[in-house]
Amino acid sequence: MVDQKHDGDGAGGGRATVARIYDYLLGGKQNFPADREAARQLLQVVPDAANVALSNRLFLRRVVRVLAEAGITQFLDLGSGIPTQGNVHEIAQAINPATRVLYVDIDPVAVVASNEILMGSPGCRAIEGDFTRPTQIVGALDDSDLATVIDLDQPTALLYCSVLQQVPDEQIDAVIAPIRDRLAPGSAMVISHLSTTVTEAYGATGVAKAKNVYRTQAATEIIPRTSDQLAALFGDLTLLPPGLVSLTHWRAELSEPDPYAIAGTSSPMLGGVATR
């Protein structure tokens, strides 16, 4: 995950970020007191928030495995967040060592931590960038040495994992279209996103309280969307089976058990992979 604002971030009592809240929920160490306090507030209203985060991470790992095994050797992870065990490059390069990965995140803490991990991983880099400004990302890929990492004229996996729910409805198409529509034949786009079914799971009051934690602690609005709204984001790409489904049910046999599957329920997040 990644948040769109990080003014005042830092260990000295600054604002929390969505990326570092997510890191804390996954048991990571790249977080500060403000992030831990925000996570604790979130867990008070959504007790299984850590399961939401883990389910999303497991989905990401399964997706990368499927796409790497299909022959894709370029991965562009937008809003990549704080690195944790089982990163995109680790999974993809275990299948094909020649795979190249570019992580893009607005949080400088995430970028520094990622590049430390990427030392010794040829063809992989992390850069600071805002995924809500796609023309800048495309420009950087076209006009700099980043083209040696990601060449958009070649098949590429574009990853939007648990980030688009931070984009207002009136901006969502402008955020996605410039890179989605640039993808070459043989490419794929991945989305995981909080669904409106979250209200069924936690009630309108619980959802409102959780959204308020992100709003007040991380200056970020969280916007759940319906399956129809999310399906439209794939444009003219073709969804791979099993389609756009709860993360719990997207090829679950390819990873360790999803925490919701163990509990006999479903993640309130939807995910899908579409190809060109």
Automatic annotation (TrEMBL):
<dbReference type="GO" id="GO:0008168">
    <property type="term" value="F:methyltransferase activity"/>
</dbReference>
<protein>
    <submittedName>
        <fullName>SAM-dependent methyltransferase</fullName>
    </submittedName>
</protein>
<keyword id="KW-0489">Methyltransferase</keyword>
<keyword id="KW-0808">Transferase</keyword>
<dbReference type="Pfam" id="PF04672">
    <property type="entry name" value="Methyltransf_19"/>
</dbReference>
<dbReference type="InterPro" id="IPR006764">
    <property type="entry name" value="SAM_dep_MeTrfase_SAV2177_type"/>
</dbReference>
<dbReference type="InterPro" id="IPR029063">
    <property type="entry name" value="SAM-dependent_MTases_sf"/>
</dbReference>
<dbReference type="GO" id="GO:0032259">
    <property type="term" value="P:methylation"/>
</dbReference>
